[in-house]
Design goal:
The protein contains 2 helices and 5 strands. By secondary structure, the protein is of the alpha+beta class. It has a 5-stranded antiparallel β-sheet, with helices on one face. A hairpin with a 4-residue loop joins strand 4 and strand 5. The protein is elongated and about 105 Å long.
């Protein structure tokens, strides 16, 4: 008695795949995770852009003091401040802020970072300012220099 299994008897167990219902469940789970995670990611990216602007302004403040010690005056030249090749305007690496030193003389200076992009971030921290006395400002929200924002 020769008992051999034929191919159709063995294959049905091995050809199992995912069903449409299983695929739909995975799609729904991934969609829910994306809906929950995306706003947090957007806020994280916005904070990173603000940190870029604050960091550049603080670098300007430090370098203005160094420049003053050597020259007994402040400067509006951003290349001497270590920012970019353009003497008048520096754009942050993300492209979100343009920074300029508005005026500088032997007594004082002030610098402004202006937000360039739109979206939900546009209503929060449009500008950051700092001056030679160390006074910091931001608009329209006056608390943009805080870390948590």
């Amino acid at each position: 008695m020769n008992t051999t299994l034929t191919l159709p008897q063995v294959m049905p167990r091995l050809q199992r795949g995912i069903t449409l219902i299983e695929l739909m469940i995975v799609v729904v789970i991934v969609s829910i995770l994306a809906v929950v995670a995306y706003p947090g990611y957007q806020e994280f990216a916005a904070r990173a852009k603000r940190n870029e602007a604050r960091s550049a302004l603080l670098q300007i403040a430090t370098n203005q003091e160094r420049f003053y010690l050597d020259n007994r005056t402040f400067t509006t030249d951003l290349t001497t401040m270590g920012l970019g090749a353009n003497a008048a305007t520096y754009r942050t690496p993300s492209g979100a802020y343009d920074i300029v030193i508005n005026n500088a003389d032997a007594a004082s200076w002030d610098a402004t970072a202006t937000f360039l992009l739109g979206g939900s971030e546009a209503g929060k921290c449009l500008t950051f300012t700092i001056n030679g006395a160390g006074a910091r400002g931001s608009g329209p929200d006056g608390n943009c220099w805080e870390r948590s924002r």
